[in-house]
Design goal:
α4 links the parallel β4 and β5. The chain has 233 residues and is an alpha/beta fold. Helix content is 44%, strand content 15%. The chain has one domain: Ribonuclease H-like superfamily/Ribonuclease H (Nucleotidyltransferase, domain 5, 2-Layer Sandwich). The longest helix has 17 residues.
Length: 233
């Protein structure tokens, strides 16, 4: 199963108010595990970013001024997603409304809702009545979000990918974002799970005679007795 875990940063809360995407980040998952393929772009929204929104994601008008406009990165995004990518997002209606608005503006087809998994819906079913923001879920699942001083699309997508995995498989899982050192540890543990013990079986003369008698009666020129046949030939 191929999924695209993604997040957007925007100029505000709704496309109905003229808000636009300023950053989009995504990573590819196969069977819920990252493959290492990512997509990340900062985008010139062609409008001002309010100060209160800059305080959330840190992306200023000056920083975004020389960045590509959405129509300039739209095709590379479509190519990354492909025809089979299922979207995974937290509070998916928000991100999908912005994404589809931008695609429609560029003359591209929009994405259907049946192609979308909303981790917020999953979290609310699993933890009813609790806080289920991305920050809250990271804390609940012991996902390290210390680098999240500002909201950032690619970082949030990476955090969400691990949260999504634990929402599915449980918080007892140690995670899948393995570095080289803990891969070696896991490999060592795994190789110790199965131990092959050498065992010796000694047959009595009576058992050997019974086995030889069975072969001679039921199998023509049995391979097992080939050495004895050659010696007696």
């Amino acid at each position: 199963m191929r999924e695209i875990c993604f997040d957007t940063e925007t100029t505000g809360k709704s496309v109905d108010f003229g808000d636009r995407i300023v950053e989009i980040g995504a990573l590819e998952l196969i069977d819920h595990v990252p493959t290492g393929k990512t997509f990340h772009e900062y985008i010139n929204p062609e409008r001002d970013v309010p100060d209160e929104v800059v305080a959330v994601h840190g992306l200023t008008n000056e920083f975004l001024a020389d960045k590509p406009k959405f129509y300039e990165i739209a095709q590379s995004w479509i190519d990354f997603v492909g025809d089979d990518g299922v979207f995974v997002a937290h509070n998916a209606p928000f991100d999908m409304s912005f994404l589809n608005f931008e695609l429609k503006n560029c003359g591209f087809n929009t994405y259907d809702n049946d192609r979308v998994i909303d981790t917020l819906v999953i979290a609310r079913k699993k933890f009813p009545g609790k806080h289920n923001s991305l920050d809250a879920l990271c804390e609940r699942f012991s996902v390290d979000a210390s680098a999240r001083t500002f909201h950032g699309a690619l970082l949030d997508a990476q955090l969400l990918a691990e949260v999504y995995y634990k929402l599915i498989y449980g918080d007892g899982n140690q995670g899948f974002l393995l570095n080289e050192s803990n891969f070696k540890i896991n490999k060592a543990i795994n190789t110790q799970k199965v131990q092959i013990i050498n065992r010796k079986f000694t047959l009595s003369e009576a058992e050997l005679a019974e086995h030889r008698d069975f072969l001679e009666k039921n199998i023509k020129n049995p391979l097992w007795l080939s050495d004895e046949i050659k010696e007696n030939a």
